[in-house]
Amino acid sequence: MNKKNYTRILRLFLLMLLAVCFCLPAQASAANPKNRLVTKDGYTYYYNSSRKMVKNKFATIKGQTYYFDKDGHMLVKTLFQVSGKTYYATNKGYIAKNKIISYKGVSYYFDSKGVRKTGWVTYKGYRYYFPQKGDYLVSRWKKLGGYYYYFDSKGHMVKNKWVDSYYINSQGHRTAEPMEKTNSSKVKKISMKNIKQNPELPTGCESVSLTMVLKYYGFNLGKTTIASSYMPRSSSNFVTAFAGNPFSSSGCGIYSPGLTTTANKYLKAKKSSMRAYDLTGISFKDLYRFIDNNTPVIVWNSMYMWTPQASFTTRVNGKTWTFYRYEHCVVLCGYNKKTNKVLINDPLSGLVWRNAKSFESIYNRMGKMAVVIK
Length: 374
What we know:
CATH topology of the largest domain: Cathepsin B, Chain A
Oligomer: single chain
Structural class: alpha+beta
CATH architecture of the largest domain: Alpha-Beta Complex
Low-confidence stretches: 22-28
Shape: elongated
């Protein structure tokens, strides 16, 4: 073979070798499945639309999210972290979302993106609390953000109930002191002074009722102190503020959330350890237990027991509230079971006895709003 032919054959061989080198990866890639899960040697892998094995990534497959580690193994039945966030892969591999999962004896909550959440969680209509470490709270009291909460045997935050002689309101806050259940007498009366709202506060019954209770506990304040310095105002929001002007006959009023905030603003300003609690939702008969423990209760009823008439509404924090014509705020400070009457400290009428059944009916219609200070 002459030198010229040898050179030609060598060039042809090199060209063929290069072609093989370039074609092999393409052929190998073409041999991989596309958009498919593959199980091999006990592990499950996923090949994407480019026929490449997914590694160190999430992948969404038929509406479910999965995670594949550095070796391409699909994670199964385990907790794992990605970018500082904790996830859980179920026994079928997909990521748990909007669920409470028990893993190695500890329960965790994972949100709509599959990320573990701690702190307050609402799940299927119930409130839970998940600490940073350990299981969610069960059958115990816990102080959070300055308030004590109770979680039942299922971990649900308790509300509108008595637990260990404490009343827990609609927000889950317990009263500061226990209200012991007593074999109450037929007659109970708390001694407290009356303050008339007129003429200074023609529509300021709420601030005056609060003032009467504060003075009962020994605070020194004037009739108009709360209305002028502590109670927020609004043009139409009667839930968290006073709608209108309490110094005017055209003013409307303020409901229990706003009056509770007002009371606590005053108590904090006076550096008092006492706090106001919104008991809205409590049954009328349960209010007697506070009276038995010498705790007057601010309640919402109507002027002179007239029938409340729906006037206008406002929406606050996703809830629609109705303001009623003849709305009135008074202090419940006694009862007489023999005569079926309750003692009311009324900023308009003074200390008066009202028919308990009629008073309860209006109390219920007004939304069972009540506030105590302890």
